[in-house]
Amino acid sequence: MIWDDDLLYLVGFVAFFSTPFLIYLLLLLRGAVHLAPTRPKASGRRLFGPLFVGYYYWLMRPLFGLALRSGVSPNQVTLATLVVAATAAVAIGTGHFALASALLIAGGSLDILDGHLARLKQMATAQGAFLDSTLDRICDGLIFGGCVVYYARTPMILVCLAVLIMSFTVSYARGRAEALGVSGAEGLMQRADRLTVLGIALAFSPFFAHRTEGHVAHPFYAITAVGLCLLAVLSTVTAISRILWTLKELKRRQIGPLLEEPRSRLEQLALNLTHHRASQTTGHLRTPQESAVGSHR
Questions:
Q1: How confident is the model over 24-54, as pLDDT tens digits?
Q2: Residue ranges making up the domain that contains 201
Q3: What CATH number is attached to the domain comprising 116?
Q4: Closest Cα to residue 5, out of 200, 207, 220?
Q5: Cβ distance 85 to 51 under 8 Å?
Q6: Distance (Å, whole) CA 114 – CA 72
Q7: Which of 62, 138, 154, 249 is most buried as measured by Cβ atoms within 10 A of its Cβ?
Q8: The total number of structural domains that make up the chain
Q9: In Å, how far are 57, 160, 194, 229 from 106, measured between CA atoms?
């Protein structure tokens, strides 16, 4: 019975996302929808590009309209994201990976919704942005902390800890760089990319684990383990690329004024040299006051 439930959930999961994606591709080919604009290069490129970003925003349009007509506020949606993330963390920690995948994707969708709703309702504030970013870090800690709990007695705990640490490093590198005036928001593993990869791995894991390992008390869930290894590697690459990008930009901005200063000194030296040669030719370099007096004589 459990195997049948696994198959039913997996088929429903794939159909829910693949069927609208095919429709989106047809609309894209007909010109009825357009791709999301490509961002300027800043410390790399995204794992999921404009095609998938545009598709997911198109998929969420009914939810956007429903939220806009409702009386819900962006901050309320942000707090709901925290509740969903906490529930997903418990589901991961207790081995309910199928449920966790649905909750994870629902939480990620709510995280997109709060910012979009704030813009649509013209309720975007600095307080809301701060709350959203802060709770995002808490949600990440809860979700990957759930992975740490589940794999606590296996070597995979080290991979889970690496993902947890690198997810915070990637986010902090962006926030600190922007505070210093450097834009470095891209990279292979942004928050939405991490949640997408983990959500897909969680959804596929039960079906294959129960067929390869049997119905054991604590399955290894190899697909999720592979997904976490992928997240660890790509998150580390993203963190390093953002750090190097930021250091490069800060160095460039620091050297720029230093290069302009010697040039100004050379211009002043050339001006002084011109005055010196003029004084040698005339025998006396008249001041502006002397010139004015001479003009009245």
A1: 999 999 988 888 766 666 656 677 788 898 9
A2: 7-254
A3: 1.20.120.1760
A4: 207
A5: no
A6: 10
A7: 249
A8: 1
A9: 14, 22, 14, 23
